[in-house]
Design goal:
With about 350 residues, this protein is α/β, with parallel strands linked by helices. Helix content is about 20%, strand content about 30%. α2 packs parallel to α4 (about 80-90), α2 runs parallel beside α7 and α5 (about 175-185) packs across α6 (about 205-215).
Length: about 350
């Protein structure tokens, strides 16, 4: 990465006229929320922009009733509860929150500040932290007879309310972490669970696979796929087949949960001139992003799942550390007299 010249600082009177923020965070998930808290702790005027109608990111939107086991301090915690705690923490210093706003365009103004354009407004900021996760997620759809017809009437791609599966005969399709996590979460309340996977290799944590094969009551069919869904107004049967022999089995089920993966799309970020590697933004040790020519983009940082570097591990715990780094370097950019590290919070009066 090449160095950049000393950043320009917008005059105070100009900042007031344009409603200029110290830092704007794109993304209201757990990483963005912790970034807002940390920026507030550093007395930075902070804004969060998120395309979703509520804060919490994937924790709230995709799996609110799934347990999270790899968050420090929590042996296990419901994703919704973790999100609510992080929202409370993230809003402690009263950041401005703009929901249901898609960040469409990002450009630098002549004075070095950054202009973010959404479908609703124009936002001005001294620094920008991109914390959008892997982008907008949409489930991979299964193209089998009856699936689209019964979507929402027994066929599901997400679990928003676990209670609706109580006492049900459930078929889970998939062999990744989501499929096994939901089998584990729903087994205590379901009448029965059957899981089918199209091959004999799983893409999940070793502990989850051991539970499925050795300790669960889940009926598992390997080398099987969903052939069609049948019912009268709602799901009543699933026809599955062995993809080696084509032999069919009919299962009496009340609900089908399809966990065959998600497609991620960075959307307009791809047009911002930021250098990308796949769906990720390469960053340096300061969490700074580059332009497509390999030059550091003044005031632009990335943290969480959207950022990448050698040896990157994608965890919430990793992301919150990354965004602290980004916030501290953003702070010293706009105020060169500020300390990079403010000290431990236990030594502060908050």
């Amino acid at each position: 990465m090449t160095a950049v010249s000393e950043p320009k600082i917008a005059p105070l009177e100009d900042a007031v006229e344009r409603d200029l923020y110290d830092v704007t965070i794109i993304g209201g998930g757990p990483v963005g929320l912790f970034g807002a808290f940390y920026a507030g702790m550093r007395q930075m005027r902070t804004k969060i922009i998120d395309s979703l109608p509520e804060l919490g990111g994937q924790l709230m939107a995709l799996y609110p009733e799934k347990y999270v086991y790899d968050m420090p301090g929590f042996p296990k915690v419901l994703a919704r509860d973790l999100a609510l705690n992080m929202i409370e923490q993230g809003l402690r210093f009263n950041p401005t929150v703009c929901l249901s706003e898609m960040a469409l365009k990002m450009e630098h103004a002549p004075d070095g500040t950054i202009v973010i354009t959404t479908q609703k407004a124009t936002h001005h900021t001294r620094t920008l932290i991109i914390a959008t996760g892997a982008g907008a997620f949409s489930p991979k759809k299964l193209d089998a007879p009856g699936v689209a017809e019964f979507e929402g009437r027994g066929v599901f791609y997400f679990v928003r309310n676990k209670a609706q599966f109580a006492g049900k005969r459930i078929l889970i399709v998939g062999g990744g972490d989501s499929a096994l996590d939901w089998a584990m979460n729903l087994e205590p309340i379901a009448e029965s669970i059957t899981l089918i996977h199209r091959r004999d290799k799983f893409r999940c944590h070793e502990e989850s696979l051991d539970w499925l094969m050795n300790r669960s009551q889940v009926t598992t069919y390997l080398w099987h796929e969903l052939g069609r869904v049948e019912g009268n107004g709602c799901v009543e049967r699933a026809v599955i087949f062995d993809n080696r022999t084509k032999e069919e089995k009919v299962l009496e089920v009340d609900a089908i949960l399809l966990n065959i993966g998600f497609s991620a799309d960075l959307g307009p970020i791809k047009e911002w001139g930021v250098r990308l590697e796949g769906n990720s933004i390469p960053v340096n040790r300061l969490m700074q992003a580059e332009d497509r020519n390999g030059n550091i983009m003044q005031g632009v940082y990335a943290a969480g799942d959207i950022s990448t570097y050698e040896g990157k591990i994608k965890l919430i715990a990793t992301g919150v550390g990354e965004i602290c780094t980004a916030v501290c370097h953003a702070k010293t950019q706009i105020d060169p007299t500020a300390k990079l590290f403010p000290g431990h919070s236990s030594n502060l009066s908050l």
